[in-house]
Amino acid sequence: MRTATATLIAGCLLLTAGCGAERPAEQAASQGPDTPVSSSPVADAVTPAPTVKPKPVKPTGDAVNPRKVRFTKATPVSKGRQVRLTWWSGVEPCTVLDRVKVKETRKRVTITLYEGPSAKARNVSCIMIAIEKTTTVKLKSPLGKRKIVDGAKS
Questions:
Q1: Mean per-residue pLDDT over the chain, rounded
Q2: pLDDT-derived band of residue 12, with 50, 70 and 90 as boundaries?
Q3: What is the DSSP string of the chain?
Q4: CA distances from residue 41 to 75, 101, 134, 141 in whole angstroms, order as listed
Q5: Which residue(s) pair with 141 in the sheet?
Q6: Residue 44 CA to chain centroid, in angstroms?
Q7: Which of 19, 40, 47, 111 is deepest in the core (most CB within 10 A)?
Q8: CA 133: distance to chain centroid?
C-alpha cells in the first residue's frame, strides 16, 4: 500500500514539474513579457452557424397518448390555400406527428398539432435532442385576412 501511495505522489510531482517548465529558449528570447500580440484571438473569428432546414413530416396517426404541441411559425403558402407550420420536436419514432386539426371560421383558422410516441417505439431507447420539424396543411378556403391561431395555446 505504501509503495502505491509513494508511486502516486511521485507521479503527481512529475506532472506538476512538467507543467511549470519554461518555454523553449528560442521562444523566450524572441518574445519578452512586454512584446505586443501580433494576432487576433480566435474568439473574434466569426464562424457562421450551420443552417439546417426543418425536417418535413406527415401525420402518422399511430401516436400513443398524443398531446397538443405549440408551433413556432405559421406561413401561408400556395396563395393562402395552405399553411406551413414549423415547431420543435423530438426524434422519431419516440416523437411523431399524430394528426393536425384545422378549424376554420370567418375570422380565424385554428390549427392544432398533436404529437406523441409512435406505437413502433416500444422497447426503443430515445435520445433527448430537439429537432425542428415542418408540415403543410390544406385549408378549405384561402386564408385571406383571417388570423392563424395555435390551438395548443388555448
A1: 83
A2: low
A3: -HHHHHHHHHHHHHHHHHHTPPPPHHHHHH--TTPPP-S--GGGS--PPPP-PPEE----S-BSS-EEE--SEEEEETTTTEEEEEEEE--TTTSEEEEEEEEE-SSEEEEEEEEE-BGGGTT-------EEEEEEEE-SS--TTPEEEETT--
A4: 41, 52, 39, 57
A5: none
A6: 24
A7: 111
A8: 11
